[in-house]
Write a structure and sequence with these properties.
Two copies of one chain form a homodimer. By secondary structure, chain A is an alpha/beta fold.
């Protein structure tokens, strides 16, 4: 091992005359997979960084947080001081001003002047003579003088020289030590003092997203079902007319399944029949026909101009369109002829269709992303995304990303975000947990989750504790869906309307980002294709439907109320403050979310049993809610769903929830602030 | 972001025609600080490695563990298969044959042949035609043929070609699919089959030590106290005569405080008096006089030949000598004149003595490891260690390593171990937790701990859980000392003999490596210099003492018995299986250790109150002891200290311990193996 090979912290010591850095920096947070991936944050919000910064001996160690926008050629680092928290831990913060990728690093050094002054004070306090020590201090100040001169800070340099001269001069030891401890010397030496044994970490990365990446309500619908009746193919213009209603209900994102031409070869019929009957519309995910592929609009839906008009209407109403990026082709997709090299060929000369042996999906050809012409294919996919970005789309829901190379996504998302840092990618990967995590790490802004299959209290608590209390919180943003066109869970099928309400409220309060496959959920249409199936009967995936969303008893008004509660309460706009509270009953789940300043605290209690009323004690974790001092005092619980107000006392209170009438409380804890960290409760 | 910048796992994709690796490898264990440091293991013992290895899609993924001795120029990698554990986790193992540094890496790839064959079986099971699929398989086998040919494995290549020919030939589909699934095809394809989308991690490091690094009993003494009486300076020859007794008591290591010439300038007197009286012998840590420095033997102790003789006697008795490496100089050390540049100079021309302001230690000059001539100084220190290695020393107890640069130790220890992989360095750093951890990470084989100050049940359980259940277990080997020449804890001062026995048993059973500052502990001499001090009265650090180790009532026989128990029970020779068990009383602590195969299980129960008998229920964690199936059966607890045998039933049993007679049980759980994982207990 040579001297040059001695590394301190993660910093390689340069092969210079100076010894390796004295300072070691470890345990930097946030950090995903040892820094391989970026942690996710929101632009305009503070990013807190912590690190262990330590050195041998007893000298004072100091640290700074360096940060900058990540650019190809780097840029100037901004610097913020880090505060010591004790036990060699330091904390600093910065705020990324706009969406984009940022780098940060931690720098640590031995503060010779500060250490000297601390020791000087100790000597003075026991009356030791400090003449020689003051001369040592003067020498340290003179080093700072040199540094200031070198940088052209001549005024500072002159003043430092004056201080050094006084320190080693003939004044009284008392006067001289007071000068050394003064504010002026401190400020100048903080700026110019020698930073001995300095170490700096490798840069770590932060992705700063816009707020929509963290908080939003999505509505999914099939445009073709919004024609004037169930025999007439709906259009994008029909959907545009629906936008004011959706905006009025508080939705932020309108998500459309693929809007491209649909293949004819091996087209599936109604209820996924192997063969389509004449007039069957086919699955929107069998993308491509003679009319075009991934950059074309299905003629029956309208034109590209109609799409632009839909985007414009959404924008007018504060919403935006999310498109489905499904990287697969029908046998009629133009690429099949134009780029046969992008598909896998079988020894009999046919193109390999999709399959999950022994199941075959002959209406779909997968793309071979590892083929010889992979670069062309990858660029073509990027071209598709750029095309829709050019039409105002900034949100992409990616279909089955786990069946395409992970590296494709890392590259694609980075490329798109370099041009459009506000772009959002939602990963629709329902697969093995580590693959889902990897997709989130490598760049997906948001991810579908197992929420749909987590129905018991224990399942929900375990899963959401993992999402919000492990390293996942740094990179995995959950998007919660009570239902999707592919998943109609048994719980909804059996629980009916009460289960729909229960799962809707769970999704909208457990998840700052949630979505619904709207029409069936609003109308509580939970009929399965057959028993044991998660497919809808007469699924819109294969046929037109017609929905009466304004009929008596639909969930529209409730959904609107919930979305309004979400918008009015910052606690529900984030997931990192989620806390579960103990309850007596397996059917009763209770959790809270709060704003970081504890000004807005929401407590939810939900009946998980759609068939039975539940009564049970809820035991609030008072400390987590900043209420530890009020263990035996009363406070008000304001149910934002019903506007009822309850008086609670202490941690343990009883809740009763009837699935038919009110399956959940969404309480706002009402209290009046007395000081920053102490509250006085109403009543 | 360019294609080349797409990395998968920790592997940078090469800028070639091939797409980036499909496989991602994360979560590799063992790994210290993201791979910055080596994990510690024992040569000749199995190193288990786990990793998450995953890829997109549904193809079979496989993984291999690569390992080799770490050498300047690298070397051939050995390879071992890794077994899938489920949930994308894989496990493999290798055994480092000898002490030294090793590297390992994990490689993962998509198994095209295996995936193809799995799918083939699924097709066959539902009676699909597989003609085309067999031709696809033939093509995969032909790729393996090419690989085998390329490597010169002509026999394998020929056989593979034959298999390919049959697969695409005219035989029945059944016969051909049987051939594809056969053992021969499997073995050949495991060896030569295409490894698609292959990824490999950066190498991680393992330090393999000899067993003594994990397990050993140390005895510390001041040689000068073993003269014929308390007025005559003892010698190394006197100590050599003591070796058979220490070996007989079961000690492995004889640790000597510095044996070098002692300075005269500012020499300390008895009980750390500021000035020595004539005849005072001074502190051995004030190293260096006109007779020499760190490579000289104090003339009053004898000669280098006497030292060599002591090393030889130890070796003869299965023991070895540990030397104290204290990198500081008395003002009379030869380096002060020969290398004034290695010391810090004050503006008044004097050399800076050691201080912790306002305290001054004028008998000691610290070395300035960051001085301009640091390379020369660092090499000189290495020279000192090499000198004593040349005299047969392989264990160094390093004094206050935390007051010297961390990088010095990383470099020094690596240099020494490159020549002497069996070298052991014990860090005597009693300082802030993260600095102690850093020293262990960067290379110290063993570390002193806070054990000495952890006296209550809660303190002990918390501390030893941290040591054995967090990342610390990978790099921090605890060396437990009930007492040292610097630390006579209040608990011993007040608890007297019972406390000495209690702390001795705790150290020897909680720690596979433990040590005692022998003479005071054997004789229970726990008198403090003054109340509130952790210093001994008439400390050997400043004067000669005379010890009657064979007097009535000393702890010698008990210590010998404990060391024999340690040697006879593999459970006590490791720390990684430590488990604490619940007890009813704060004065009663209970813990177990076991051999990995659960063949040897030791349960200790210790009374932590030296003044009072304790009775209480112990509730064993039966699962941790491999006894879950015997919850309601009886078994035998054999107290190895007293040879008494107790019959226990189930998890909860009562224990009574009298500090005066038997403050602890060291039980061996007696049972007869019925099968590998099932035991039948003795009545």
């Amino acid at each position: 091992m040579t001297f040059a090979a001695v590394r301190t912290g993660s910093v390689q010591a340069p092969r210079t005359q100076a010894p390796p850095a004295r300072v070691v920096i470890t345990g930097v947070e946030p950090r995903v997979d040892c820094g391989r991936y970026a942690a996710k944050r929101i632009a305009g919000e503070c990013v807190t960084v912590e690190a262990d910064v330590l050195a041998d001996g007893h000298d004072l160690v100091r640290a700074a947080l360096l940060w900058r926008r990540a650019e190809r050629d780097g840029g100037e680092w901004a610097s913020a001081p880090m505060e010591p928290l004790g036990n060699d831990r330091f904390r600093g913060a910065f705020t990324p001003p706009a969406p984009g990728e940022y780098e940060f690093a931690v720098e640590g050094w031995v503060d010779r002047f500060g250490s000297w002054r601390r020791d000087l004070e100790r000597r003075v306090s026991v009356g030791q003579s400090i003449g020689v020590d003051l001369r040592i201090g003067a020498a340290i100040v003179r080093e700072a003088t040199k540094e200031a001169s070198r940088t052209g800070a001549d005024t500072d340099a002159r003043r430092l020289e004056e201080i050094a001269t006084v320190l080693e001069g003939d004044g009284s030891e008392g006067e001289r030590s007071v000068l050394a401890a003064g504010a002026e010397a401190t400020a100048l030496m903080d700026r110019w003092g020698p930073r001995e044994g300095r170490a700096r970490t490798e840069p770590l990365r932060i992705i700063a997203d816009r707020v929509r990446a963290r908080f939003g309500a999505w509505y999914e619908l099939f445009p073709r079902s919004f024609g004037p009746d169930d025999r007439t193919h709906g259009t994008l213009r029909d959907v545009a007319r629906l936008v004011p209603r959706l905006a009025g209900m508080g939705f932020d994102v309108l998500y459309l399944p693929p809007i491209h031409p649909i293949g004819r070869t091996f087209r599936k019929g109604r209820n996924n029949a192997e063969r389509a009957e004449p007039g069957d519309v086919g699955s929107p995910w069998a993308i491509g026909g003679p009319e075009g592929g991934h950059t074309a609009v299905h003629p029956q839906l309208g034109t590209l101009e109609d799409f632009d008009a839909l985007v414009a209407v959404c924008k007018e109403h504060g919403m935006e369109v999310a498109l489905d990026l499904a990287l697969q082709c029908s046998p009629d997709h133009p690429w099949v002829k134009e780029h046969p090299e992008w598909f896998r060929h079988r020894p009999d000369g046919t193109i390999q269709y999709a399959e999950n042996p022994p199941k075959r999906y002959q209406d779909i050809y997968p793309l071979d992303f590892g083929c010889e012409g992979w670069r062309g294919l990858w660029e073509a996919v990027l071209g598709v995304v750029r095309f829709w970005c050019g039409h105002g789309v900034r949100i992409f829901r990616v279909d089955n990303p786990h069946t395409k190379p992970l590296a494709l996504w890392e590259w694609l998302i980075a490329e798109v975000r370099e041009e459009h840092p506000e772009a959002i990618f939602l990963s629709e990967a329902f697969t093995r947990p580590k693959v889902m995590k990897e997709l989130a790490k490598l760049g997906f802004t948001q991810s579908y989750t197992y929420f749909t299959w987590r129905n018991t209290k224990r399942e929900l608590e375990e899963y959401f504790t993992e999402l919000t209390r492990t390293e996942m919180r740094e990179y995995f943003r959950a998007s919660l869906w009570p239902n999707t066109p592919d998943i109609l869970h048994e719980h909804l099928q059996q629980g009916g309307r009460a289960a729909c309400v229960e799962r809707l409220i769970l999704a909208a309060t457990l998840g700052a980002t949630y979505g619904i496959y709207g029409p069936p959920l609003e109308t509580c249409d939970v009929r399965a294709r057959e028993p044991g199936s998660e497919e809808y009967r007469n699924s819109e995936k294969y046929q037109l439907r017609h929905w009466d969303l304004d009929a008596e008893g639909t969930l529209g008004p409730l959904i609107a109320r919930i979305n309004r509660i979400r918008r009015e309460n910052p606690a529900l706009q984030r997931d990192d403050t989620l806390v579960f509270h103990r309850t007596e009953s397996e059917d009763l789940i209770c959790y809270s979310k709060s704003s970081p300043d504890l000004d807005n605290v929401i407590v939810c209690a939900v009946n998980l049993n759609p068939w039975r009323e539940v009564w049970g004690t809820v035991e609030l974790d008072m400390a987590a809610l900043g209420m530890e001092a009020q263990e035996d005092r009363t406070y008000q619980m304001h149910d934002l769903l019903t506007d009822a107000r309850y008086t609670w006392r202490g941690a343990r209170n009883v809740v009763g929830l009837n699935p038919a009438s009110s399956p959940a409380h969404i309480f706002r804890v009402r209290r009046r602030a007395r000081s920053e960290h102490e509250f006085e409760y109403y009543l």
